[in-house]
Amino acid sequence: MIFQVITQKDIAVVHEKSLEILERAGINVDSPKILDMMEQAGCVVDRGKNNIRFPRGLVEECLKLAPGQFALGSLDGKNAPPSRRNPTK
Length: 89
Known about the structure:
Blueprint: H1 8-24, E1 27-28, H2 32-41, E2 44-46, E3 51-53, H3 56-65, E4 69-71, E5 82-84
Antiparallel strand pairs: 1-3, 2-3, 4-5
């Protein structure tokens, strides 16, 4: 059984806006080790602001490496429905 709350068009809009936020605003991280790691991975790092911005292409490449399906956990260990990145595939 697949339960879909939003449409594929809505998913595409959320994805696009997420990429824009990661690329333009990024995230703030207080760990010099993480800043180093992300800079080596190809992110844009502003050490003065502890900010990491993620190039769109890097995010897209990382998403290709992520599994398309994974199991959600549950407290009882029995009722964990599968989750898919793209429910229509």
